[in-house]
Request: fold
Amino acid sequence: MSSIWQVIRLHYGFQSTGSHFLDFNTIVLQPDERPEDLYQRLMSFIEDNLLSQNGHISHHGIVPSEDEELTPSLENMVVLTWIRLIHPDLPQLVKQHYGTELRSTTLASLKPEISLALDSLLDEVNSAVESKVFRTVTRDLLRQNTHKPSRTMTNAPITNSKLCPLCSQANRPNNKHFLSKCPYLPVSDKRFMNKARQASCFHDEGIDANDPTPDVDSLKI
Reply:
């Protein structure tokens, strides 16, 4: 039988070579492909590249004297590659779920059981990924809220002192107050600032979030 396959490979140009084995790395799960079909492709590729006594490929300078068999370790590698191609996080989940069984049996021996539970395993993996993404986004938002610099309504340099940019620009001597307490701030601007303070947890450089907003009617126009 092996000689027949050898003739077929020679006829159609499918001769197995050492470089052909590297094409194993190009196998991926295709869109709409069933996981079981992917496994069969992986297994067929490995079986087709096993060393043969009638072949011309040597191993460490020695041509095998008999056909290579599919060893348990090689079969384990096929199953591991299979679940990794289905989802990168699946091998770790399989290790957690079947840790007890894997103490006394090989991964390839559990392949039928993994196939039956594959849908539930993938649901668990996807849920874990979504939770991780949600936690990451939430943490990043909290970090941004904590470290984001205060926004300014003017182009004045950021300072921690009470300095009204409106009075400073007008060269008024009494400018040591926040913009929110400036008696010369127009009513329309004051209302806009009130809305901005309600819509954001940040305060402008000239707005003290801890200071009460003065009554609009008390402003001097």
